Amino acid sequence: MRHDAPLSSAGPVRTTCPYCGVGCGVLALPDGKGGAAVAGDPTHPANLGRLCSKGSALGETLGLGSRVLHPLKRNAAGDYDRVSWDVALDAVADGLKTIIAEHGPEAVAFYLSGQLLTEDYYVANKLMKGFIGSPHVDTNSRLCMSSTVAGQRRVFGSDTVPGSYEDLDCADLIVLVGSNTAWCHPVLFRRIQQNRAERGAKVVVIDPRVTATAEDSDLVLPLKPGSDGALFAGLLVHLTDQGLTDATYLANHTAGFDETLANARAIAPDMAAVASHTGLKLADIAAFYALWAGTPAVVTAWSQGVNQSAQGTDKVAAILHCHLATGRIGRPGGGPFSLTGQPNAMGGREVGGLANMLAAHMNYTPAEIDRVGRFWNAPNMARHEGLKAVAMLDAVAEKRIRALWVMATNPAVSLPRADHVLSALKGLDLFVVSENVISNDTLRGEPDFILPAAAWGEKDGTVTNSERRISRQRAFLALPGEARPDWWIICEVARRLGFAQAFNYPDASEIYVEHATLSAFENEGSRDFDIGAHSMLDRRAYDALNPVQWPVPAGRPLGTPRLFADGNFYTPDRRASLKPLATPALAATVSEEFPLVLNTGRIRDQWHTMTRTGLSPKLGAHISEPSVYVNPADAIRYGLTAGGFARIENGHGAVVLKVALDAGVPQGSLFAPIHWSAETASHARIGAAVQPLCDPFSGQPEMKATPSRILPVAYASRGFVLSRDPAALPAGSWWASVAVEGGQGRLFATDASAEELMAHSRSLFGEDGLVEMIDREAGIYRCAATRDGKLVAALFLGPAARAPLWDTVKAAFADPDFAPQNRLALLAGRRLDGAADPGPVVCACFGVGLNAIRAAFAAGNEVSVEDIGRQLKAGTNCGSCLPELRRIGASERQGASAGEAAA
Ligand SMILES: Nc1nc2c(c(=O)[nH]1)N[C@H]1C(S)=C(S)[C@@H](COP(=O)(O)OP(=O)(O)OC[C@H]3O[C@@H](n4cnc5c(=O)[nH]c(N)nc54)[C@H](O)[C@@H]3O)O[C@H]1N2
Ligand SMILES: Nc1nc2c(c(=O)[nH]1)N[C@H]1C(S)=C(S)[C@@H](COP(=O)(O)OP(=O)(O)OC[C@H]3O[C@@H](n4cnc5c(=O)[nH]c(N)nc54)[C@H](O)[C@@H]3O)O[C@H]1N2
Ligand code: SF4
Ligand SMILES: [Mo]
């Protein structure tokens, strides 16, 4: 519970969602008790009032129960002692000084995050590259956007996203490449669907896996993993052969088209060649090419299916080539569009947070090193590019890097070969982590210091979304405990390293103004990133800043919605530079030993490693367990059963996940979510089983295609436990945590007997107030514990084939008025109010369960998704569940007609 008074009592604070790169505006109204009511900001151009399920549930994530609130120092016994900020900051600075003195500045590194604010990022980058003198600053954006950065820099000469979200409203064709937009950028998906409904725009989805996004589209291209380059090379050939290239644009504004076309012809001379590369049907390829060729207002949007590839940079370039060849760029409704992942992945790129950029979209050229050095008045400029994330952690393992400061990212989960990463972290001479939470997998890497960082709602600064729109994040809660903003922590260390003058910022606004000034410094139109109009902002103007798209050069305070329609790029000759694709468009190589391709990605209602969304019961209800999604034919082939368990292994690491059958997953492939960690599940940290293979240009790891094998795993029994605090399970059990109303849930599977679970429960919950039932022969044990008339715990165990369901018990656990005399009825698994069990939640916003939705559809053949919305409210807030509602409706109708046929 927060004790501080809310910061504002004068109505909601305008801020920005801390999750995805859509960058939705949020209105947060503090409740005075540490929480806040959250709503979409109708005036924010990114979302116009909408929020998705994750944004809508932000209020459920503001609790302080999991927060780190004081600086902590590791002692000789391996425990943590609370220390003052002065002690912690002095020690961090001394530790850095010692290592720099002994091993040189390149022995220290920062690993940052697209979840830092621009101001945090700016000072971290400045300290390392200008003052410590090490180039080793990289960020989790390396795992996220770096192939797009490399592709855009190669072709445009700058890391520029040319378009605007408005283009999604007025395009006639939207092509989504390697993007599960329905789940990962839900508010943009709603905009796209609105365009489709109102203007008839067509949507094409290119993804080996048929996703929720594909369900609301006009054409689905389930290509072989990794073959996007060939598909777009073929499109370039097709456009040329159809005479649809824009000769004037090509002649005036591009270079390298002929070689690029020759290369495309070598890869994909005709559609038959494309079919053999991609595994797609000729008719589908022809339909796609005809649509693209015939629709000038086309947006090609992409995310991780393109970026996280061993050929990611080439995939990006192949898409850009097609837009440039037709001059379809920078025009309303037309252009290539990278959908960024994190809320401030773009801001991080702007300050130079990637190891191969310097600052403000400047690079490691002698002239730019000199320019940035003069601007910063920097004593120790780094002079060459630094190590990229995967290589940085290898350097840590090899002790070339001896001090690492991790901020706002959880690399022990999210980097490839995560087990190796965790052991590398443990070997550091100095390991510092700035975090919001007291416990995550990276903190198991034994940091010397854990520094409590301010979290969303407490910090002030700016973020940039996918469409280059800079928005303010504003604080609406007081800082809890001794938490401090990330920029403050960095500046305090800088001061102790002897750089007080250069890091003397009273607040975030002065950092932003310096960043804006640098962006305009000796720029004169030579660099895309120019927000010079903001170099004059005072604190009040900064606080009042409205969302605006960069460039915002002096004299253009309203910003720039689109770039490149004029054909002026940021290469030396101002022409876009087309180049042959260097890496062949190959699918991942499987073998007899590892015959399957492991694809990893996101689910609708969780954010990354779940340190925040994992706190929300609403969000935990949609998909509660880590599963591997397998094609039904592969399930038969490998002896897997739906609802059973399977082990995935590949020489890098292994996980054990529940098995879910999914006809949308192609044969030969597996899909697993990235969200579960050692904190939230026993065996589901998928990063451990991801290969460290990287794109040769961007250094971005291939996280979508690790050759692997899968084996069934059997447990004798399954069950669940609900308790106020997380409950341990017998050794060897499989479990996954789920946030539930009033406490913690764990779904588990075990070989322990009913008898053993009884002993375990008694030791966990005590025998006082415990009612139990056991059937040793049937392997059933159930108990409910009450204390002071309240239900405080329940544990149900049953044979694996008939796992007990928990919806009823969960409802009782959440009920503050639960009457202890109902414990026996509860053990029977009956609902106490006699109502029907709602089943697993489909609509997170209104908590509408599957059974209720099925029943409503079953009421008549004509029931539409809109009717469901009117009756149950399901799907009427964020709309993230609409594809699922449509699928349930279709399967109910199918079931009904099958029933009629049988009768
Ligand atoms: N719910 C939710 N939303 C999020 C996030 C989250 O954690 N949860 N994270 C945010 C972040 S940081 C990011 S980066 C974005 C990511 O957003 P997305 O990129 O949309 O998400 P992913 O699920 O990682 O991957 C997208 C798709 O790529 C497909 N794919 C795999 N291999 C290939 C291939 O070779 N070619 C093609 N064309 N497709 C392929 C996968 O099957 C998958 O469906 O989401 C953001 N939004
Ligand atoms: N296998 C596989 N791996 C992947 C991906 C994939 O698709 N497949 N996707 C990759 C991508 S695209 C991404 S973006 C990464 C994301 O991976 P991570 O960045 O590792 O995941 P998060 O859970 O977002 O970690 C953020 C951490 O920072 C903390 N935090 C949040 N806000 C703040 C703050 O303001 N200050 C500080 N100091 N700490 C804060 C949170 O508590 C949390 O511990 O995962 C990558 N890894
Ligand atoms: S789409 Fe959802 S997660 Fe993304 S910014 Fe908007 S509300 Fe946040
Ligand atoms: Mo990301």
TrEMBL record:
Its cofactor is Mo-bis(molybdopterin guanine dinucleotide); [4Fe-4S] cluster. InterPro entries: Asp_de-COase-like_dom_sf, BFD-like_2Fe2S-bd_dom, BFD-like_2Fe2S-bd_dom_sf, CT_Nitrate-R-NapA-like, MoPterin_dinucl-bd_dom, Mopterin_OxRdtase, Mopterin_OxRdtase_4Fe-4S_dom, MopterinOxRdtase_cofactor_BS. GO terms for molecular function: 4 iron, 4 sulfur cluster binding; metal ion binding; molybdopterin cofactor binding; oxidoreductase activity. One of its GO terms (cellular component) is membrane. GO terms for biological process: cellular respiration; nitrate assimilation. Residues 10-66 form the 4Fe-4S Mo/W bis-MGD-type domain. Gene3D superfamilies: 2.40.40.20, 3.40.50.740, ADC-like domains (2.20.25.90), BFD-like [2Fe-2S]-binding domain (1.10.10.1100), Dimethylsulfoxide Reductase, domain 2 (3.40.228.10). Keywords: 4Fe-4S, Iron, Iron-sulfur, Metal-binding, Molybdenum, Nitrate assimilation, Oxidoreductase. PANTHER family: NADPH-FE(3+) OXIDOREDUCTASE SUBUNIT ALPHA, RESPIRATORY NITRATE REDUCTASE. Belongs to the prokaryotic molybdopterin-containing oxidoreductase family. NasA/NapA/NarB subfamily. This is Nitrate reductase. It comes from Bosea caraganae.
